[in-house]
Amino acid sequence: PATQAEQCLRFMHIPKTGGTSIDSANMHLPAGQRAFDSLMLETFMRVQAHMGGVEDLGQLYDDVHHGFLSYGIFMAEHMSDYRWLPEDADDKCEDLHTPPSRSSDIALYYQEPGCTNFCVVREPLARFFSAFKMTSQECDPLSIETKTLELLSQLNSRPYLNDCFFMPQVLSVYGVFNKSSATHQYCQRILHTENLDQEFDDLMKEFGHELQLPADDLMSTWTDHCNMTVDELTPTTKAAVYEKYKADYEAFGYPKPSF
Q1: 128-153 pLDDT, tens per residue?
Q2: Is 220 part of a structural domain of the chain?
Q3: Is 43 within 8 Å of 60 (Cβ atoms)?
Q4: What domain range includes position 29?
Q5: Most buried in the list 23, 60, 128, 200, measured by CB within 10 Å?
């Protein structure tokens, strides 16, 4: 319906769930005709305003996201256009990764009257291992087990480590570490990485937009150094990750992995 197309739609980017491709699809639309707003879009519009001469925001976004190194250099050059929150915290995160519980600005952004927020969740072990491969070089089952146990222990006292890549997904969606204590749902429309093309397509149509995700995974090269799969992780690794992210398994209905 036409009324849906005029509705405000906002995208909440939970790290390692496919959000980069979602922002890319939207940025390739002409300014003024974009399907939704997002904090990443706002960051890149600030970058565009300061760069001068950049016509195609989507192309810029894709180009800099193709490699870990190129994105690191780009971020360093445009650091003033990124917002890191909370400003006085040790483990700051980009605003788009920051959970609403950690910043009143973020909480307000996702409580705009008349706006619908959508986000993507992912099977927690797969999500963890994807983030792990982006931040660690280990690539054999026993080394990964050792490093994982160290990392999970660190995360107990520093949940926002590594730009919030390892924080539980419930923290973004519900603003708490366990859904049972939630008083607010910040993301109303929850999509799933496992069926993202179809679910994204359906949501866009519902809001009056024809928009598909790009065919290639923008950040796949960031983890090329390790082609191990989740199935090859040790039972100890799987069990530890399951315990750590049990609240995500319960909140989003993913079955317990076998280990």
Answers
A1: 999 999 999 999 999 999 999 999 99
A2: yes
A3: no
A4: 7-252
A5: 128
